[in-house]
Amino acid sequence: MLPALLTALLFATSAICGYRTAKQIGGLEANFWRIALATIFLTIWAFTFGAGFAGAPEWFILSGLFGIGLGDTAYFQALPRLGSRRTVLLMQCLTAPFAALIEFFWLGTKLNLPEILCVAVILIGVAIALAPDDHLKISARDWKIGLIASVIGAFGAALGAVIIRKGYAAMQAVGLHIDAGTTGYQRVLGGILVPTIALIIFKWRSAHAHGPAFADDTLHISRTKWARLWPWVLANALAGQTLGVTCMQWALKTTQAGIVTAIIATTPLVLLPLTRIVEGEKIGARALLGALVAVGGVVGLTFFR
After folding, report:
1. How much is the pLDDT for 206?
2. DSSP character string of 13-58
3. Rounded Cα–Cα distance for residues 22 and 206 (Å)
4. Share of the chain above pLDDT 90, in %
């Protein structure tokens, strides 16, 4: 339970940093740089203190392909369109039921009735707390793209989480015990492929459509923006794909994906004070009530576990 709660805290920090960078340099580039930096950090860990490619790397690389490559790429398309509060709400509340269903049909793991009820309480609390008001205007096109991207991202994240469980089961079957930092490194190797290809295609199409002069202007603007944004990009990489993913790997080593993703779904509650400061979103009595309901679900889940 503790590593899942730590993951929620780190993911909330990452969401704020990711929103700032995605609004300035676009979702594709913001996602690529946070994963690229996380790959560097986790590579250093895996080959200094960890176990490198030991264990079941094929499963964790596949998990990264779906969870980070597909899930996070879609997430960063929704983030600048819906804002961090709405995007995280949709992603986390859809990921938990997706993960529970995938794990049940694939691995045969199921939750008992009290656990299902507690998961439902958590998701209801999050929905009550973070259902946005109408004061933030979003165009119909952005709503459509953001909603589709959130659903795709939630499915990718859920499938990636269940594949992590499969990887740990494969290691347990042969008596291997690998640290979460190493499995996180293996996972991010699979995750960096999709955002790299997506960014290359986007840059090539932009340069081809607008010509060399546009590319030169874009490079100059990017340099100016990077002078202001690099601390946010660095914090996003550390909080999200480095420390956050490591804590999630730690949690999934011993706990079902449906439960872990439900606890991580409390991430938006941690975002409440942060979005008030950064994005100007209001916090009212409904938000506080929803937070209490969700926390009650987490407490109940801990008890019934």
Report:
1. 72
2. HHHHHHHHHHHHH-HHHHHHHHHHHHHHHHHHHHHHTS-TT-S-HH
3. 17
4. 28
Q: Is residue 96 included in any domain, yes or no?
A: yes
Split into its structural domains, the chain has a count of 1
Residue range 238-283, pLDDT digits in tens: 998 899 989 999 999 888 888 888 888 787 777 777 767 766 666 6
Report the pLDDT averaged over residues 33-52: 93
- Closest by CA position to 195, among listed 88, 74, 59: 74
* Tokens coding 282: 């209001």
Domain limits for position 204:
2-113+137-274
- The DSSP code for 192 is S
Average pLDDT for the chain: 83
Task: Round to whole Å and give the CA distance between 298 and 215.
Answer: 50
Give the residue carrying structure tokens 């993913």: 245
Within the chain, strands assigned E span: none
